[in-house]
Amino acid sequence: MITTPTPSMLRALPAEDRQRLLRTAHEVSFAQGTRLFEEGGRADRFWIIRTGTIELDMRVPGRRPAVIEILRHDELVGWSWLFAPHAWHLGAEATTPVRAYEFDATAVRLMCREDPALGSAVAQWVGDVLAHRLRSARTRLLDLYAPYGAGTTL
């Protein structure tokens, strides 16, 4: 299972930008087993985990959803909110009780449009997260479905 942390907002954004974003957030809690979103749903918010774990999963026809990555403290949950058509590419479920900061995607996109430096920093951070998630998804799917797994070459 891939569990390497994704790029953290704390490390990716300058302190002033972090504080501006955090001022727009509100605290939320999710019980274990809560589905945060489903593939194809409207991506109108995102979260930074404070405590707990969330699994990202992908629908696989004829099988249970494949767990792509496990997210923990200080990690971004959701990147689809930044890119049109603003639809989730994966699903997400709380595997433990979770406390998180929740952000309104429309408000953050507006802040980014009004402040190009903030927009660039957020785009770089989310892009780094996206690249990490794509690598994780590839590795996980190879582990699950390739004849010899991701680590073996012929």
TrEMBL record:
Pfam short name (any one): cNMP_binding
InterPro entries: cNMP-bd_dom, cNMP-bd_dom_sf, Env_Response_Regulators, RmlC-like_jellyroll
Domain annotation Cyclic nucleotide-binding: ranges: 9-78
Source domain of life: Bacteria
Name used for this protein in its record: Cyclic nucleotide-binding domain-containing protein
